[in-house]
Amino acid sequence: MQEENIGFWSHASVQIDSVVTCNTKVSLISMRTDHHIDSSLDGYKWSKYGQKLTKGNSSLRTYFRCAMAPICPVKKKVQRSAEDKSVVVAIYEGEHNHPIHSNCKESIQNHLDDNSVKELFCNAFLNSFSTNVDLELSL
DNA sequence: CGGGTTTGACCAGCGC
DNA sequence: GCGCTGGTCAAACCCG
């Protein structure tokens, strides 16, 4: 568990909680922000394969898998918190087994123009994985 | 035309 | 066995 405060996002904070179940790493990331969260902003390219209206939460849950599949087994689920709609909860399942997508490096740089904030943001996400890949981020 | 997204259908697991 | 729910599939659709 770790927390990062990111000034770029108004009133934003990132809370990360990771557990390992059945050899699959599951990371729960909750972020308070009013900004739209780009699905590729965590440095990987995702493809959406479904969305559901779940019981007990009026917000849609969206399902993504890593676009590097079938090489990469990682999936993520994204849903706004039932209690606080300004909180985005992302559940990552599995670990990436490939380098970060080169296009995503540019995506991050386009979205975040302040270097210190960019570093905080990237670290908050990337530290949630025990990846051994070469990230090559030019922060 | 190709790749990504949308969305209803389908399937599996679970509780009763 | 049946119904409910979450997760996935895949055809249709959209957009560059």
TrEMBL record:
Claim: Lipid metabolism is one of the keywords in the record: no
Cellular compartment(s): Nucleus
Keyword presence, Nucleus: yes
Keyword tags: DNA-binding, Nucleus, Transcription, Transcription regulation
Limits of the WRKY domain: 35-101
InterPro entries: WRKY_dom, WRKY_dom_sf, WRKY_plant
Signal peptide annotation: none
Recorded GO CC terms: nucleus
GO molecular function: DNA-binding transcription factor activity; sequence-specific DNA binding
UniProt-recorded name of the protein: WRKY domain-containing protein
Top-rank taxon, per record: Eukaryota
